[in-house]
Amino acid sequence: MEMKAKSTHLTKKQYLTLGSMLFALFFGAGNLIFPIHLGQAAGGNWIPATFGFIITAILLPLLAILAISMTESDSMYQLARPAGKIFALFFLIATHATLGLLFASPRTAATSFEIGILPFIPKGSDQIALLIYSAIFFGLTYFLSKNPNKMPNYVGKLLNPLLLILLIAVFIAAFLIKGDGATLAATTHATKAGSNFTYGFLQGYNTMDALAGLGFGVTIVAALKHFGILKAGQRSRDVAKVGAMSMGLEAAIYLGLIMLGVISLKFTQVYSNGGPAFSAIMTHYTGMIGTGILAAMAIIACLTTSIGLVTSFSQDLGRRFPKIGFSKFLIFTCTCSFLIANFGLDTIIALSTPILMLLYPLAMAMILLGMLHPFIGKQRTIYRTTIGFTLIPAILDAIHALPPFLANLAFFQAIDNFATKYIPMFSISMDFVPFLAVGLIGGAIIAKLTGQSFKADDTAERAIEAREDSGAAVIEPTTSASEMSATND
Predict the structure, then answer these.
(1) Where is the composition biased (Polar residues) (predicted)?
(2) What 8-state DSSP symbol labels residue 271?
């Protein structure tokens, strides 16, 4: 009780430490290569494309952290629990598997290798070099992730300032020394069809930051508790302050990277991804010194992100499966990420797109429901109708994004043709918007007409749900559905 009374506010130093930590956790592999690629693809349409990108890559991650804080959830499972036990478990495992060991975490090693190591090794030795590099990379990730309460010290105080210095050096060389910012106005056409607001919005999926926000939100809340911020209301306000500071900085970095991508059209080709484009930019402005700077930047950024990814995954599953625990999940995650990273960056990106098209609409629905918590609480009917309706376009978009060897199968072609003809906004992959709206509004109307509670205080339902998850609720057949709502930490 004494700590609760004394620890009511963060110090300025703690704000800076947490803000730096959050920035470093988000700014990783995708943040280095995808804004550059967006700038090259958008060309003269870079301004509307940037707005779309900022929504999914900046605003959504911040709202995800706030949703975790506002609902007092200590995991994705708790956030998604009102939509049903099975969906909550699927959402937790699928999202964290994507972030922790299937795509995002292996991508941090593969991307930093291609940008920071591959230019310096002899041709033909890339596979063995990737094997050695990824082993060292995930060995460091494991060591720095063993004690998550020390993450602010490792990430915020040591690695992140180095990254910022490197980024500032790049922008000074491009915009001040060379003065190439003036060429932005001369770029008048897009280099890729559809490179507009919607294109930027969808490109933001590749950063996986909205998904990561649901995991990092747990880490940030845990760090706040470690600093003694124990009241939910104060934590939410601190999350907003820390998030605005770190995500504002990240937005500025994104803008600079996108502008570099646009400027690069004057002296290099349009690449299929941002890795080689970034290397070409650095070589153009600083020669081999730039290549070395980029190598250090990529490795530092990707390592800090990898720490956050595997820690969040291991923490959440460690809480959900306490008999296994955080430490064993951490070993498992780092090992799997190491193995998958050795398939290479191109394969990882190609396979991740359908999964992101499935998970992102569901994540956006969960974030919106969490933000509405003061008004709807964890109302089961609203959660289930919203998620149920959103799941339909999410599945269709995932099918649409399948690799060619699957997309060309007759079954998937028939589904894709049907969706193209009859589903609104399917052709631009924004079909989840009307479905989500119908599910949310319809669920609220049903709940209102049937007299269901909209209270945000879920304390009484928390114990019922805990018994249900542990199996005790099986012997309580008289418990109504409305009584088995979501948990609240």
Answers:
(1) 477-489
(2) P
Residues of the chain by 3-state class (helix, strand, coil), percent to 5? 80, 0, 20
Task: Give CA separation, 169 vs 56, 221, 293, in Å.
Answer: 27, 33, 9
CB 28 within 8 A of CB 141: no
Q: Which residues contact 155 (CB under 8 A, 6 or more apart)?
A: 20, 21, 24, 25, 304, 307, 308
CA 461 to chain centre: 30
Write b or e for each residue in 8-38: b if 16 or more Cβ atoms lie within 10 A of its Cβ, otherwise e.
Answer: eebeeebbbbbbbbbbbbbbbbbbbbbbbbb
Q: Which own/partner contact pairs does 319-327 have at CB distance under 8 Å and 24+ positions apart?
A: 319/74, 319/75, 319/77, 320/75, 320/77, 320/89, 320/92, 326/148, 327/146
Find where tokens 């998030």 sit: 243
Tell me, rounded to whole angstroms, the distance of Cα 468 from its chain centroid: 30
Report the SS3 class of residue 236: helix
Asked if residues 265 and 191 have their Cβ atoms less than 8 Å apart, the reply is yes
Q: Which of 69, 82, 364, 106 is nearest to 210 (CA)?
A: 364
What is the pLDDT at residue 174? 87
The mean pLDDT of 43-54, rounded to a whole number, is: 92
Buried b (16+ CB within 10 A) or exposed e, 56-72: bbbbbbbbbbbbbbbbb
Q: Tokens 């998850």 sit at which residue?
A: 469
* Residue found under tokens 């602010």: 152
Name the band, by pLDDT with cuts 50, 70 and 90, for residue 456.
low
Domains of the chain by residue range: 2-354
pLDDT tens, residue by residue, 83-133: 999 999 999 888 878 877 788 889 889 988 988 888 788 888 889 999 999
Say which residue the tokens 């959440």 belong to.
Answer: 316
**Distance in Å from the first CA to the final CA of the chain:** 18
Residue 164, burial from CB neighbour count under 10 angstroms (0-12, 13-18, 19+): middle
Asked if residues 217 and 67 have their Cβ atoms less than 8 Å apart, the reply is yes
Comparing CA positions, the residue from 393, 388, 385, 386 lying closest to residue 422 is 393
Instruction: Scan for tokens 């301004």, then name that residue.
Output: 47
Q: Is the whole model's pTM more than 0.85, yes or no?
A: no
Q: Give residue-wise pLDDT tens across range 219-262.
A: 777 788 777 776 767 777 888 888 888 888 899 999 999 999 99
Q: Could you tell me the CATH superfamily of domain 2-354? A: Hydantoin permease (1.10.4160.10)
Contact 49, 202 (CB under 8 A): no
The mean pLDDT of 191-207, rounded to a whole number, is 83
In angstroms and rounded to an integer, the radius of gyration of the C-alpha atoms of the chain is: 23
